[in-house]
Amino acid sequence: MTVTGDAGRSTSPGWAEQPSTLDDRIPFLARLEQDDRVALLALGRPLVYPARSTLVHQDEPAAHVLLVLTGWTKVTRSAVNGYQALLALRGPGDIVGEASAVSGRPRSATVTALEEVNAVTVERDRFLAQLAASPAIALKLLGLTADRTRASDRRRVEFGALGVRERLAILLLELARTHGTQVPEGLRLTTGLSQHDLAGSVGASREAVARLLKDLRQRGIVRTSRRSLIIVRPEQLRRIGRGE
Q1: What is the pLDDT of residues 205-229, one digit of tens each?
Q2: Which residues pair with 110 in a beta bridge?
Q3: What is the pTM of this model?
Q4: 183 forms bridges with which residues in the sheet?
């Protein structure tokens, strides 16, 4: 099963009660004043990445940063034993690769396009020079970094106290709120995430997630197929997320 589609956003309130831990924040470009945004984008060149292509490879040198204009990506990190963790989703207005560009260290994660992505790539030297010349941009980037760190810390604390079943329910509700499209049966997720990706987000094996999805499907809480996942009964997912 792969959750695919045009990365829309849910317009129906009440689907998720928990705060998002994947992408619930203001994207970088939206934080900037218009003049700063225009100046930063003017430093780079536009690129188009097909769906499932890799924008950034883990452990490669940081030669540039990417400013996403349209489309969604997933950020993953692989362990030495092959396990792959889903760290975040990055979409329109987001910046990708800024941490390694600033620190000078190799890339800490891989970024893959979930759909066609239009982005602007800015060479590292030009990006750093712009930060030095514009304290306003540098402060906005610092604020973004702090927000991402806080979200990551909150995720570890909240998920550390929960089992895989509860973590998966919370994740599906988050995705329903941030990447869902209303359909007659319920809310169809449009992230392009596979079972493997879902497993990497909740710290479980793909087999464990497959079993949990099968249980949710048999109980009529979700509907799944090879190419879609629809949440039918969000109130039941909320109860599961609360450990009920």
Answers
A1: 999 999 999 999 999 999 988 768 9
A2: 76
A3: 0.79
A4: 186
